[in-house]
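Worked example 3 (structure in, sequence out).
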């Protein structure tokens, strides 16, 4: 489901998109790409003291094959809708 964003990362060396986080899931996984092109992702961590954000960064770094330091929550760190940036270089 993230193939569009993965292709953009390879082509442009960076990609930015909105994530709709769903914390407290049994497993972190992409649920769907919404009509507005935001990505709904289940997060296997509670929305408590940054745990869900840390799990989201870990999950996206694995999905995109980049170090965690290359994944950034640009806005929305304390909200369910977040603007995320991923780059090939820090």
């Amino acid at each position: 489901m993230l193939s569009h964003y993965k292709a953009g990362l390879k082509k442009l060396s960076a990609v930015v998109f909105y994530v709709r986080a769903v914390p407290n899931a049994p497993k972190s996984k992409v649920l769907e790409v919404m009509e507005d092109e935001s990505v709904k992702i289940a997060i296997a961590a509670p929305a408590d003291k940054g745990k869900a954000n840390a799990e989201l960064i870990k999950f996206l770094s694995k999905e995109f094959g980049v170090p965690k330091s290359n994944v950034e929550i640009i806005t929305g760190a304390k909200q369910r809708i977040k603007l995320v940036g991923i780059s090939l270089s820090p």
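Notes: Helices lie at 3-12, 51-64. The mean pLDDT is 96.
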